[in-house]
Amino acid sequence: MSDTMQNQEWLPGLVYQFQLQADGTRTFTGLSGGCRALLGVSADALRADPLLFEKLILDEDRASYLAAMARCTNDMVSCNWVGRLWIEAWHDIKWVNLRCMPHRLPGGGLQWDGIITNITQSKLLEAELLNSRAQLADLSANILMVKEQERARIANAIQDDLGDDLAAIKMALASLLKRFPQGDSALLAEVLYVDALVDRSVAAVQRIAGDLRPGILDFGLVAAIGWQAEEFQKQHGIACKFLANRDDLALDTDTATALFRIFQEAITNVSRHARATQVAVRLLNGANSLRMEISDNGCGIRATDHLKPKSFGIRGMTERVHSLGGELSIKPLPNGGSCVKLRIPLGHAATPKQDAGDTAQKA
Prior knowledge:
Layout: H1 2-6, E1 14-20, E2 26-31, H2 35-39, H3 43-48, H4 52-56, H5 59-75, E3 79-87, E4 92-104, E5 110-118, H6 120-178, H7 185-212, H8 221-236, E6 239-244, H9 253-274, E7 278-285, E8 289-296, H10 312-323, E9 327-332, E10 338-345, E11 361-362
Parallel strand pairs: 6-7
Antiparallel strand pairs: 1-2, 1-5, 3-4, 4-5, 6-11, 7-8, 8-10, 9-10
Helix pairs in contact: 6-7, 6-10, 8-9, 9-10
């Protein structure tokens, strides 16, 4: 068996046959020709020291190897282990995948037929891909943060500059109307028209600034979501019930803004696509995490909706949650409708400013 394997240079990796006799004797009864190429040691060296392979395993990975082989031996099931070896011949670390199947031998011994393959390149590519994804996620989170900061800056500029100018115009018109000559109804009508135009402009400035950065967030996330839920109900005629188990939460600005934007996007999707008549929102601060749930009784979301190339709203919500180290799920409900659930760790949700006990706040 050993000679047959050793002549099969074409075999991928290292094909082996290992036996453990009832008296504790360990022997490699078969080794293919890929031994030196994979492990940096000869087949003779491995036969002379059957525990040599185990000695090559990095200390950090040896426990997982021993545990995998113990399960394989005790339960007589196949073993599939991935770990790192230190190859002394090349002073290098190599990732390998070991797969083997145990068989009982006459006399109480065991035999493993297995193969060890080099997966270093795929592991390096995997690490590079994960690193690229992490960098992309960081970039996306930074873009969202900068976007919100720029929105806040523009909102403040609009309110400070345009708002102040419009307020000054309004005061000037009020002063002018007090001294306006009697009898010139045509000119008076024009002044009143300008006054009404200023009122509309003030309302527009407040609306635009609010869309860019809702000032209600200055009063906390709970107050902001409650206000937005009421506005949503007024604008769309869809009942929106809000429940929170805290009066307020001590959140940093970026976290509160991100959660508020996720809530806005979720109810915007409801108004556009769900054909719902009711929305229920829950904000729950637990022992280890902050959770938010937005459910509706509409037509429900399909699994393929997540895969649409232009599902930027869902992607935006996902990126915001991931930037907070949390988890997001969007699923259809059994009785119709959809539910958006998110959870962020307590590190992003500080101790509540004011504990309202378990009494829910209703919007």
